[in-house]
Design a protein that fits this description.
Elements (H helix, E strand, L loop, with lengths): L4 H35 E5 L14 E5 L13 E4 L9 E7 L4 E5 L2 E5 L7 E2 L21 E3 L4 E5 L9 H4 L2 E2 L3 E10 L5 E2 L9
Antiparallel strand pairs: 1-2, 2-11, 3-4, 3-11, 4-9, 5-6, 5-8, 6-7, 9-10, 11-12
């Protein structure tokens, strides 16, 4: 078979076209991977532990960038890898920060820190009024010291949440990112802001 210059040129053009396509796919893949693992990431809620504020099957957008510039704050809703099961992800709310002492008293979370050494109750207006009990009877008057790089997290649905009350403190490196907003279902799109605790 004789390969004419015209056929050789056509093949060359076809290979060039295929190479351009593969190159563009590679660039897109790298960009998506960088965004996915360092900037933002989707997450689907599975379970009722964050009711009434997040519902099962809702899709969240996770902000991974912010925590490169500042530490997690009290009240942030975060996606995390629990120490009891590193093959899964949970979504919880940060209540205790490094340096805090957390106490359970009369069904409430009490924070002891430099500003409030005697302790002050966290005012959690986002909880359902009929579902805000924070501890088991055996936790009464229990005080938890939070060391550096550790956090105390709980679900907003206190009666149905597997969280720091059962598996302990959460290391900083186990926090994947802060929940930014709900993007699906479309009729429930909303921001997930961190509360401002007037007393802390």
């Amino acid at each position: 078979m004789n390969i004419t210059p015209e056929l050789r040129h056509k093949w060359r053009e076809n290979f060039k076209f295929l190479g351009d396509i593969l190159y563009n796919f590679a660039v897109i893949f790298v960009i998506v991977a960088v965004i996915r693992y360092t900037l933002i990431s989707p997450f689907q809620v599975n379970g009722s532990s964050m009711l009434p504020n997040l519902e099962t099957s809702e899709f969240l957008m996770i902000d991974k960038l912010s925590y490169y510039f500042h530490e997690p704050e009290r009240g942030d809703v975060v996606v995390l890898v629990p120490p009891e099961n590193t093959d899964t992800y949970y979504v919880k709310r940060i209540l205790g920060l490094p340096g805090d002492k957390i106490e359970f008293l009369n069904g409430q979370v009490i924070v002891h820190n430099k500003e409030h050494p005697e302790g002050i109750k966290i005012d959690e207006e986002y909880l359902a009024t009929d579902n805000n009990k924070t501890y088991l009877p055996t936790h009464e008057n229990r005080i938890i010291d939070i060391p550096d790089d550790q956090y105390f997290v709980m679900g907003d649905n206190r009666r149905a949440s597997n969280d720091s009350r059962s598996w302990g403190l959460l290391h900083r490196r186990s926090i994947e990112g802060r929940v930014w907003f709900v993007f699906f279902p479309l009729n429930k799109i909303r921001l997930v802001p961190s509360p401002t605790y007037q007393t802390l």
